[in-house]
Amino acid sequence: MIKVGDTLPSATLQEYSEVEGEGCSIGPNPVDVTKATAGKTIALFALPGAFTPTCSAKHVPGYVQHFDDFKAAGVDEIWCVSVNDAFVMGAWARDQKTGAKVRMLADGSADFAKATGLTLDLTGRGMGLRSNRYSMLVKDGKVATLNVEGPGKFDVSDADTLLAQARG
Predict the structure, then answer these.
(1) 6 occurs within a structural domain
(2) How many CB atoms neighbour CB 66 within 10 A?
(3) In a domain, 97, yes or no
């Protein structure tokens, strides 16, 4: 499992974006994790699935709500990563009104989740291999803090916890 001090794995996530005003969509577009994190501070949180109850009611809204606070704490971008396809993540972004505040990034084949060692096997519940729920502060591609949730929990990967760590 990835730990504090490690470099994020080389992986490509997918992003599906809406064009404001035009109603046209752009994507899915590849996001090279190594290039996209270079020289930046990223507040990254991952979760088991788009449109799931805890993820939609608590996890994503907390990060959207605290966008300005994260910026003030020196965070360049906020990423939400989930094992869903880019089209689902794009629809979820619209539903959650993430706009330019949270980048909704798809890990469709769970390659990033597997490479970090932060997978969650939900095959028994009909959801297959997913990402565990966690958050991390990433500085120039390296993990500065890591908060991994226990099974069924939502105690340490919330926006307030990661924001306090970003403020240091």
Answers:
(1) no
(2) 22
(3) yes
**pTM above the 0.85 mark?**
yes
43-59 pLDDT tens trace: 999 999 899 888 788 89
Confidence of residue 151 (pLDDT cuts 50, 70, 90): confident
Residue 120's domain comprises 12-167
Kindly state whether residue 136 falls inside one of the protein's structural domains: yes
Contact 144, 123 (CB under 8 A): no
Q: Which residues are catalytic?
A: 55
Tally of domains within the chain: 1
The pair of structure tokens assigned to 133 is: 């729920």
For residue 2, being part of any structural domain is answered with no
Q: Where are the alpha helices (DSSP H) in 29-146?
A: 33-37, 53-54, 60-65, 67-72, 86-96, 111-116
